[in-house]
Amino acid sequence: IGNGFQHPPKYCTYRSICASCSTDADCTAKMAENLCITSAKCNATGYCDMNMVQCDDKDPCTEDECNIFTGECVNSPIANCCDVVEDCVDTNPCTGRWCDVAKSKCNFPYYLCNDHDPCTADSCDYFTGNCKHEDLANCFDQCERDIDCLYYATPVNWCAVPTCDLDAKTMTMKCNYGAMECADSLQCTTMDCLPMFGCLTIPSVPCELPCAKDSECDDGDLCSIDKCNQVTGKCEHTNIECDDGDECTYKECDNRTGKCLFTPCPDCKCLDCAQQGPNFCDDGNVCTDDSCPQGAGLFHLCIHRWKTDCNDGNPCTQDVCDPVKGCVAIQIEKCIGCTSDAMCDDGNDCTIDSCTDAICDHLYICG
Length: 367
Fold this sequence. Notes:
Helix content is 4%, strand content 33%.
């Protein structure tokens, strides 16, 4: 044991490190046997204190040590170690890859190829890398897990709580559906559920709840600036104003990103929506909430706010909002599934989201 340096056990195989001594000279005489020693002194306990060459390159993916015969550092790569997913390389066409950054370790899980149909055997063809779904004979089940029922119904009802239960009469697994209740942790919102979208967060403006800091006033709308008035102790919400200085563009804020959008008006004729018919602002897209702002002003422009981000809490689906159908979850054929509970977050405080065997589970706890 040296001052400021803990000798690894492997060094004690060399007597120059663990040597006993009476004087400093006894220790320095041993330095020639180990070129990784930079200085040596005899301590009060009669053993040599050694200062060693420091070889730590701060890279978690290398094994760092000093060559005692040359005094040079050797930084050897550690197999299957990673900082980013690009460090992970595998030649198996049926495995995906992800980097466990906390452990600096590459993982190569097999693709799930899950089509959520209990009557097919799902597998990956090693020669082609493609998913296969072979029909099972005499299978009459609708599901294996609750999440299968979410995609069994056509069209998908995002306001239904699916459960996969055994039917005692037929002895098959059947899907059952309960009513969804929605909740969030935001103070300045109310929740609603629409079958085409699921849970929707609706800002409560003005927000009259007491507050102590700005974060308590979050209304879930990226197009509003949420502040807590320290004098009144009340939340205040100010819409982001978009102005490009061009009289020939419609100006609006995209509440999905909080960024301003500027759309050219046909022939530079921007119409005041307050002076048009009641359906003037309807853009024909069910994914947007269309309105014409009320109140005094020189000019009124239509506002199109996206209703939801369509996240179903399943990393094996691509979630999009179809202008006609609403939220649509497109199955990703070759998917490694979830690797943590956080990947399963569906944004609903009424569910406990967890990752089990690479598949997301959403335990409903409300109602």
